[in-house]
């Protein structure tokens, strides 16, 4: 644990509490403790660092961002020393990388692992946070920084009879570290989002039979997974400065030049050529944003992209009925998926597809899953049913701000927040990837936010400022901006976890700034601190 001899805030246990040990939490501990010299206590529910990638150990887990950009850029030597085998990183590789970060900057000594934060109360009389854990410990700190992760609050459907199933049940985000032996077993997978797609591809060759329970067919393109040569990696490293500059000034920060050409302004032949080239290159975000500039905004352009993928499904999947079930019909307007052989997996004799919109799941039985068209006997059932995204982990903590207002009540009609990091009524709370932050490749967004948070904390410490929080007007304006931008895209017209549509009863609401990372960084710069209230009345907590 930290030595308590480098306090900037007298009378408190710590200057800052950081929650989370993923990309955001680790970088926050480094910035606040190593660079600003603050006394920091950090917590994580896992037994070690990794965050989302600590928990998501399911077979086939893979990043959809290319290896050279799914990392932190702040340390040039760390970038130079980085290595990877393929152009996309697997979960074990990402976990190993985050362990390297923790080792390099000696971050573990600030952490208390296997510890869940259960409550956080802001004390208005003294202007500090009281943070309570499931170990019964309560500590005080001036700043509370949360790196809870966008996709970490698991969503398990409450099917009737779930407790009666005699086989094994697993959620992909709580996969046993020791693995699960699926060889020769009858396995069912519920869910065909990004995780489901990866699991299905990975386990199909080893199971006796795989039954996929699909609610919504997905548009997915090849990921283009391949070994990257030493020469290619050396060239990337030689150009890292320009690569990161481009990524941070782009929209999605995936390391490719986003298209400036409209799909509706070129011939059908040119459309096909560009789509085919992107299909063969690989990458979901590249297919959506690198081909044409209006797939996410223009219905005609969107339909052209969607139709191209539909034709590919028809070409790949041999059984016409299975191809029909796999064929999406609506907008191509969710986080774009990419895969390493998803549609081809359904050509295997040991894989079958159940459309649970046509034949809904009625209940789980001791033997398996019963739908309206019959019972499917299983040995193992895997829930690839995703997450209560963005706000899910916040509403699970008893978090109270000014006047005892809870996050749960304040966000009852959807999560609010200013600049994706702060919230009215919650002074000195900084949320990494909080509501209405950028929708991008995450490490560059995380770096952007942590650096802003660290700069703000430094400014407050140097100027003896007690608290910071956004004005209601600034927060309302930011949410309006996010909504206006969202309404200009087709994402807002589709049902997606991006808007909370995967959680029954959850209000469909804007949860992201869809204007791109480059514009988000400009917005931070232009905003300065004009949307904030600073309280310079330092409470006596000695």
The helix count comes to 17
Q: What is the mean pLDDT?
A: 91
- The helix fraction, in percent, is 25-40%
Strand content: 15-25%
Residue runs with pLDDT of under 50 for 5 or more positions = 1-5, 388-392, 496-503
Distance between the termini: 22 Å
Helix- and strand-based class?
Answer: alpha/beta
Radius of gyration: 24 Å
What overall geometry do the principal axes of the alpha carbons give?
globular
Write the layout of secondary structure elements.
Blueprint: E1 14-19, H1 23-35, E2 40-43, H2 52-55, E3 62-66, H3 76-81, E4 88-90, H4 91-104, E5 111-112, E6 117-123, E7 128-133, E8 138-146, E9 168-171, E10 186-190, H5 194-203, E11 209-214, E12 220-222, H6 230-238, H7 240-249, H8 268-281, H9 284-290, H10 299-316, H11 320-326, E13 337-339, H12 342-345, E14 351-355, E15 361-364, E16 368-371, E17 374-377, E18 380-383, H13 392-395, E19 398-400, H14 407-410, E20 429-431, E21 437-438, H15 442-462, E22 467-470, H16 472-487, E23 512-513, H17 517-527, E24 532-535
Parallel strand pairs: 1-2, 1-8, 2-5, 6-19, 8-20, 9-18, 10-11, 10-18, 11-14, 12-13, 21-23
Antiparallel strand pairs: 3-4, 6-7, 7-8, 15-16, 16-17, 22-24
Helix pairs in contact: 1-15
How would you characterize the overall build of this protein?
It is a single chain. With 542 residues, this protein is α/β, with parallel strands linked by helices. It is built from 17 helices and 24 strands. The strands form seven sheets. Strands 1, 2, 5, 6, 7, 8, 19 and 20 form an eight-stranded mixed β-sheet that branches. A five-stranded parallel β-sheet has the order 9-18-10-11-14, covered by helices on one side. Strands 15-16-17 form a three-stranded antiparallel β-sheet, with no helix packed on it. Strand 1 (14-19), helix 1 and strand 2 (40-43) form a beta-alpha-beta unit. Helix 1 packs parallel to helix 15 (442-462).
């Amino acid at each position: 644990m930290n030595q308590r001899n480098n306090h900037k805030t007298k009378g408190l246990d710590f200057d800052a509490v950081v929650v989370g040990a993923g990309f955001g939490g680790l970088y926050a501990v480094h910035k606040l403790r190593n660079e600003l010299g603050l006394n920091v206590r950090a917590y994580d529910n896992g037994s070690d660092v990794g965050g989302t990638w600590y928990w998501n150990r399911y077979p086939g887990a893979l990043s959809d961002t290319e290896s050279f950009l799914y990392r932190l850029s702040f340390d040039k030597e760390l970038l130079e020393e980085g290595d990877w085998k393929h152009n996309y990183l697997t979960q074990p590789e990402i976990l190993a990388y985050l362990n390297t970060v923790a080792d390099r900057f000696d971050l573990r000594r600030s952490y208390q692992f296997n510890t869940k934060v259960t409550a956080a109360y802001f004390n208005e009389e003294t202007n500090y946070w009281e943070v309570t854990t499931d170990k019964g410990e309560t500590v005080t700190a001036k700043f509370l920084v949360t790196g809870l992760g966008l996709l970490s609050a698991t969503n398990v459907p409450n099917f009737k009879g779930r407790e009666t199933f005699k086989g094994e049940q697993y959620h992909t985000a709580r996969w046993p570290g020791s693995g699960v032996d699926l060889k020769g077993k009858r396995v069912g997978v519920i869910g065909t989002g990004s995780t489901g797609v990866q699991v299905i591809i990975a386990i199909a060759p080893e199971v006796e039979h795989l039954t996929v329970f699909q609610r919504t067919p997905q548009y997915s393109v090849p990921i283009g997974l391949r070994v990257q040569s030493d020469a290619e990696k050396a060239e990337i490293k030689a150009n890292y400065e320009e690569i990161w500059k481009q990524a941070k000034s782009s929209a999605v920060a995936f390391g490719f030049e986003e298209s400036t050409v409209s799909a509706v302004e070129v011939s059908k032949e040119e459309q096909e050529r560009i789509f085919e080239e992107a299909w063969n290159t690989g990458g979901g975000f590249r297919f959506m944003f690198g081909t044409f500039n209006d797939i996410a905004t223009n219905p005609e352009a969107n339909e052209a992209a969607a139709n191209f993928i539909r034709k590919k499904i028809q070409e790949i999947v041999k059984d016409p009925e299975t191809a029909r079930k796999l064929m999406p019909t609506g907008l191509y307007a969710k986080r774009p998926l990419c895969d390493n052989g998803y549609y081809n997996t359904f050509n295997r004799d040991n894989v079958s597809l159940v459309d649970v919109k046509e034949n809904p799941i009625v209940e789980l039985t001791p033997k398996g899953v019963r739908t309206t068209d019959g019972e499917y006997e299983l040995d193992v059932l895997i829930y690839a049913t995703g997450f209560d995204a963005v706000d899910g982990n916040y509403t699970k903590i008893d978090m109270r701000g000014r006047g005892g207002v809870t996050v749960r009540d304040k966000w009852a009609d959807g999560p609010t927040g200013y600049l994706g990091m702060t919230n009215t009524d919650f002074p000195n709370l900084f949320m990494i990837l909080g509501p209405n932050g950028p929708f991008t490749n995450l490490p560059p967004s995380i770096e952007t936010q942590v650096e802003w948070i660290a700069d703000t904390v430094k400014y407050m410490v140097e100027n003896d400022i007690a608290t910071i929080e956004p004005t209601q007007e600034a927060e309302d304006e930011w949410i309006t901006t996010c909504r206006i931008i969202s309404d200009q895209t087709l994402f807002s017209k589709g049902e997606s976890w991006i808007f909370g549509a995967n959680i029954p009863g959850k209000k469909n609401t804007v949860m992201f700034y869809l204007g791109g990372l480059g514009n988000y960084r400009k917005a931070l710069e232009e905003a300065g601190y004009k949307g904030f209230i600073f309280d310079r009345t330092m409470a006596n907590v000695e």
